Amino acid sequence: MIEIENNSQDSFEVPAAIQVLGISLVSMTKNRYSIVFNKGISCSLLKDLIHLYRLEINSKEEGKIIDLLGVYTVNIHFYSAENEKIAVFYINEKDKLANYADLCSLSRLLVKTYCSNVSHSKISQICNKAIPSAKGLSALFVISTTGHTLFTRIRNDKTKLLENSIQIGGFLSAILMFSNEIIGKNSGENLQAINFENQQFLITVEEGIIFAYLIEQSRPSEVIQRYMELLKEEFFELYYDCLKDFNGDLNQFHKFEPIVEKYFSI
Fold first, then answer.
1. Which pTM does this prediction carry?
2. Average pLDDT for residues 71-97, to the nearest whole number?
């Protein structure tokens, strides 16, 4: 069982950034599991990882697993704590190696933090420093194709956007509907970007929801593109059921704020 030498908050030093694509902290027993924190690992992939390695994790007091899974290298560090196992999952591109000592240090820090009386928000702080959020995004709009602006996050210096966020949401919804009429709904093609002089809206649509990202680059980085997909997946993981029977209550979408902050610095 992992020993916690000092539970004071001063002992939990946040490490520098590490070179991995994603990290997840999961508590588990033989009968259940709980995702404490996840960043950079798709929900479907994380569930597959838990299913694949859960038996081995629960059969030992502690240990480390390194494996190749498709295009990823998977590192798992797990420990015993009380009546559960605490596992830290890392994924990386299979041709890139993370610093092993850094991963071990970060894993022990996360498990000690989890087992202490420190708030779990400290876990988010540690992970978000280890895998920094992406920069270059000025605004995010999440809009239903029926015209409801469900969520917005706009950088503070974008005063015009802040003042006209509702109208912009309506504009994005309307122009997407118009483009569908021109292109054809059954063509399989959708409007993907609206270009301005030095910025552009990148647009993805799924399940009747529009995700519009305003970036100040001619081409989004690979990190931004990857985080766009992860953000969309986590949105539906959180809200899929209530979107099926949407009652018009927008307050429920405030819980999406920390997920956006996890991936993007706006």
1. 0.86
2. 93
